[in-house]
Amino acid sequence: MHRSEGEITERFHIEKGGAMKKKKQAKVKVKVKDFDSMTVSQVMEKDVQYVRLKTKGDVIASLTIEGFGAVPVVENGRKLTGIVSEHDLLGAVDDGHPLATVLAKDIMTANPYSVRPETTLGTLVHVLRASDLIRVPVVNAKEKLVGIIARRDLLRAYLATGGKRQL
To answer: Where are the domains of the chain?
Structure first.
């Protein structure tokens, strides 16, 4: 059995008033057998950054600039409502809307594609390959946001398994 190596990654969170603060977080070591049978819950980012419907575009842009690329939008106890990507933000800019006045609800992609924690990585690879998705929110059975997974997380998991696949 292989193990993925622990690593320290920088994460950011928004403090009251919109200030961003770095925090360091150790990734958990995960036991892996083969890539295809691993689940999303084993490799997803659990400390996911999210915004509310009334979060301003400039705050969302700050999150995407720091490496998140797309930020889930939630309401009512972390229920996934939408997602705002760099593409959505640039669309607002291109349309002449100042990001300081645009709200997440105005530019988000509503009802985004999401996966469950038990989804296998083999299944998710097929979905990502057939779509333009880069990051996918992870929700539980009650549609509550529990994580996010990106293409790079899948590649990291693939390398951690030594390329073992069940095809």
So the answer is: 32-160
CATH code for the domain defined by 32-160: 3.10.580.10
Give residue 81's pLDDT: 97
Distance CA 116, CA 95 (A): 35
Name residues whose C-beta falls within 8 Å of residue 148's C-beta, 6 or more positions apart in sequence. Answer: 44, 45, 48, 70, 72, 135, 136, 137, 138
Round to whole Å and give the CA distance between 28 and 7. Answer: 8
Threshold 0.85, pTM exceeds: no
Note the residue count of the chain. 167
Residue ranges in the chain modelled with pLDDT below 50: 1-28
At residue 120, the pLDDT reads: 95
- Do 26 and 6 meet the contact criterion of CB atoms below 8 Å apart? yes
